Amino acid sequence: MIKKILALAIVSATVLVVFAGCIGTNPPPGNLQETPVSNSSLKETPTGDFEYGYNADLSGVVIKKYIGTSMSVHIPKKIEGDPVISIGEKAFQYSGIMEIYIPNSVTQIGGDAFSYCAGLTSVTIPDSVTQIDAWAFTGCLGLTNITIPDSVREIESEVFSYCTELTNATYKGAIYNLSTTDGRRGLYAAINGGK
């Protein structure tokens, strides 16, 4: 009986030591880290968290896919010495990101680039971006407002479709109510020069 109690005590102590060692460690691969940080303190995400390629026509790197696990992403300004100039089509689609910082080297946000990132609540679009392709932010349910820099000269259709909480977009100091058809049309016309 004493041997059973002693064995149970040793097993219990071992379990406690092992369990205590797990506290404060990083989550296992494949699980998203849960604490987003503000853009101002966000370090560049390691290049290994992206699939990317060089585009000779654009003279820079295109982010093709995000394969990392962090919910807060700061796209690097350069990869392998070349500027990151585009976020490719579907690069972050359906990812669990909550926050994205786009560097001021990027000029284009591709179609469906962030579509259905339902938890995305914070986007920093720099003044270098000139084009936002169709469906880029579709289904980003967590977005409530967005500022589109004056540098954007082309925005394709349905960029903010199904962003049910996104009510306002600011462009060149004007606020467009995206919950109305007239507001969406007004924003697209202002950016696309009335097209």
Write the layout of secondary structure elements.
Blueprint: H1 2-22, E1 50-55, E2 60-66, E3 72-74, E4 78-79, E5 82-87, E6 99-101, E7 108-109, E8 122-124, E9 131-132, E10 145-148, E11 154-155, E12 168-171, E13 174-177, H2 181-191
Parallel strand pairs: 2-5, 3-6, 5-7, 6-8, 7-9, 9-11, 10-12
Antiparallel strand pairs: 1-2, 4-5, 12-13
The stretches of 5 or more residues where confidence is low (pLDDT under 50) are: 4-9, 11-40
Structural class: alpha/beta
Fraction in beta strands? 15-25%
Rg over alpha carbons? 22 Å
CATH H-tier superfamily: Ribonuclease Inhibitor
**CATH architecture descriptor name:** Alpha-Beta Horseshoe
For the largest beta-sheet, the strand count, sense and barrel status come to: 7 strands, mixed
Q: H/E element string?
A: HEEEEEEEEEEEEEH
How would the global form be characterised? globular
Number of helices: 2
What's the overall average pLDDT, rounded?
A: 81
- What is the helix content? 10-25%
**CATH classification, class level:** Alpha Beta
Q: Say what the CATH topology is.
A: Leucine-rich repeat, LRR (right-handed beta-alpha superhelix)
From the N-terminal CA to the C-terminal CA, the straight-line distance is 86 Å
Number of self-contained structural domains: 1
Topology, number of strands: 13
Overview of the structural elements:
Helix content is 16%, strand content 25%. The strands form three sheets. Strands 1, 2, 4, 5, 7, 9 and 11 form a seven-stranded mixed sheet that branches. A three-stranded parallel sheet has the order 3-6-8, with no helix packed on it. The chain has a three-stranded mixed sheet with strand order 10-12-13, covered by helices on one side. The protein has 195 residues and is an alpha/beta fold. It has a single domain (2-191), classed as Ribonuclease Inhibitor (Leucine-rich repeat, LRR (right-handed beta-alpha superhelix)), CATH 3.80.10. A hairpin with a 2-residue loop joins strand 12 (168-171) and strand 13 (174-177). The chain is built from two helices and 13 strands. The protein has helices spanning 2-22, 181-191; strands at 50-55, 60-66, 72-74, 78-79, 82-87, 99-101, 108-109, 122-124, 131-132, 145-148, 154-155, 168-171, 174-177.
